[in-house]
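call fold(seq) -> tokens
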Amino acid sequence: MGKQKIEERRQIKVLINQVKALEKTMNQISLNSTEIGFNYCSCNLFLKQYQSLQNEAMKYIKFPALYNQYDTTKIINVFDLTGIEQKEIFESVLVSTRMLLAALEGMEDFVDDEIENLKNYISKRFRLMFKEAPKNEYEVQDKLENLFIANNMDKGLDYDRETGKFKFSGKEYIPDFIIPKYELCIEVKFIKDISRKSKIIEEINADITAYSKEYKNILFIIYDLGIIRDETEIKRDIENIDGVNILVIKH
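ret:
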């Protein structure tokens, strides 16, 4: 998909928020429904809402045949459906809604925008998470996870930590964080003395070679205790690599 116009991007983001709201509402009903009964009697309402959103989404992306499309002119009155039939329709629409959300969030330009938004959020807020200087890299990782949680990101859904292990050139790699829907891995680096500076550049170059085999986008976050004087020295050449970004956060 080519670059969208600004208005088109805005419309897509509105659409994504609407699909998220639908999925959240349906998921809550599903979690709270221990019996069939009338818990799924709203299935036709959700079906119509989903189909309306999919019709809007079709203006921007083409759906493969595996995506469900519902003929809203042939909906059976909910009172003519058994509880089991209502549940089947409800669950079908919920799965379709999640697939639609994944398709929209996977759009290339949307991903680029969201990664940029994430970078800006971290850049503005991350330093505020520290009342005192961290002692090690693990403390920095913990604070980053707290920042994700403060941004209403759910572990296992929006992000994950120290998962996605893989091997490259005989060495085992485990990303600090991953955001699967953006095909993004995040590596945290901590620098508190001058000797660590050159090693970090070496580590980043090695990580890029390895992680680029598994992830389309890579974000390095360097938490600096006053060692780095010139950020461009760290970023030079590296950020010219497609999909690679570096944030230097100064304590």
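The first strand starts at residue 160 and ends at 161.
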